């Protein structure tokens, strides 16, 4: 039995995974804010799963944690996880001290990529395109995470596509993330709706031209991310996940439409069959927690 924890900005998912990779137990709890609270949240999650499985921390084959921010997978250090109130935290070491066993820490998007790959029983190469507050991808090659030389592989949200575009949080202008992410939509469409993208889609359906333009830029940005992932890594599958994926087929249909338009003017892109490579993550599945349970093998 493996244990995986996905620490999100507001909620934490914890799962126990059996030897076949199937979900055996799952608990959800609120995430604490700040160094001590985040550690305590993870410890509580382990305790709750332990109660359900009858296992102590030492009884699990492995324990993994997925967390936002920059993660050093060797040391277990986490940096710049601003939504959790973490500037720098020795999360792996602190959890090992509390639990009495080693804990593997991984970036949450990369963990979600691994969980998605195994959940969908894919083979070959896959990219998990996370569309949340920002945009990032996790890449899996033959069942193993591909992190690159410094762990930055997949940060495609910070590829500039418009030199005259909006200033990105990374300091560059016109990054993909400025048009194809939750924060990008919120910047372009101020609203009281807690999900600005939902408000944009509703306004676009009502005929608002500015909302329609924002919606079109979103689809083009996601399609561009798909094209980049295929042209650089030749992934066989791109799975769209994250908060924006809850739009479901409405979003996927828009992206497919852009990709088909490109195929009509480019025989080269048509030969790659990009639309057939794109799919949505299964709704409601804790893929990041599942992946965290498997990171000990990666």
Automatic annotation (TrEMBL):
Query: Which InterPro entries does the record match to this protein?
Result: ATPase_NBD (IPR043129), ROK (IPR000600)
- Coiled coil segments of this chain: none
The domain of life for this entry's organism is: Bacteria
- Pfam families per the record? ROK
The protein's matches in SUPFAM superfamilies, at most eight in alphabetical order, are given as: Actin-like ATPase domain
- Family that this chain belongs to: Belongs to the ROK (NagC/XylR) family.
Q: Which PANTHER family match?
A: N-ACETYLMANNOSAMINE KINASE, ROK (REPRESSOR, ORF, KINASE) FAMILY
Q: What is this protein called?
A: ROK family protein
Q: Which organism is it from?
A: Leifsonia virtsii
Taxonomy, top ranks, is: Bacteria, Bacillati, Actinomycetota, Actinomycetes, Micrococcales
